[in-house]
Amino acid sequence: MRDFLDVADTIRDGLSAGPLRDQFELVFKAIAELQAVFAKSVLNLDNIESVFAAFEMADLFGRLGTIKEAELHALTSAIKSLIVTTLEERVMFPMDEQKRRVHPPRPYNQFAQIIKRMREVPSTVITVMTFNYELALDHAFHFNLMPLNYCLSAKDTAGACAVLKLHGSLNWSRCANCANIYATEMDELLQGLRWFDEVPDVRLRLSQHLGQCKSCGVASTPEPLIIPPTWNKTQHYAEIKNVWSVAAQHLSEAENIVVIGYSFPETDHFFHYLYALGSVSAIRVKRFWIINPDPAIRSRFEPLLGPLAKERVSVDHVPFSAGINLLRQAFIRE
Q1: Domain map (residue ranges) of the chain
Q2: Range 106-172+227-331: architecture per CATH
Q3: Is pTM, for the whole model, over 0.85?
């Protein structure tokens, strides 16, 4: 996250003239306007989520420096395009040249394998919640033949693991005709793509191959559904209401909560309320485990946790890739 906008700026330099280049230019023009904020306030302009939040609020308030009204309304769409493009250019997938098969990034593959092993234990229920938009986790489940359920609707998927993408996903779309929110599954996205000129690692530009809405059958140009990371999520609530409802329900039923890689920024009031209201139940939390290399991570979570949860907190200051082995040691019985 810290260098996301630096990467996006590098990608901008390589874009040809056209709509996508114009969107990148608009985003960085607006960021330049935000520099004036430092005269009277402070914003973290190196963090993509802070910038995204500022753009959405600027559109709500109707002003951002010298940015024209039409450009202001286009900012949210522009930064979504920047996020999608940057993720798809940056996240690399290993390619098996002999089998012509794309593998998930190694830590995600290992994570999915651990989830699969854990779910083999009778009566064990695993739920994965993520704020990430990209498809590394989704592909890891697909690669390991694990059915997943995004819980976009109340319809259950038998035997599937709930994977709740609380900020949306690169393979979710809103139908322009009937407004139905739907997912294009990984097997459909991967069919017929050609990546072989990029071995040994490939980029999966899957947002360009989203499927049509199956509810109404009206042709449209699908684009990824991305929920802005701001407190003002209520306007998006109806779109993925069921995802958030299931997240709250599963938090209330959880005996072990593992927070891995999530930094819990001060501005994320949404997660604070999701946890606070969702975790209300008679079930006692056995463990609240934080895996994050940030030395200050415990202090950010302290205000979130009640007395019982604080007694059950453990922290390991390691990155996601190293945390995989800790998960295996804690939850897999050989």
Answers
A1: 4-90, 106-172+227-331
A2: 3-Layer(aba) Sandwich (3.40)
A3: yes
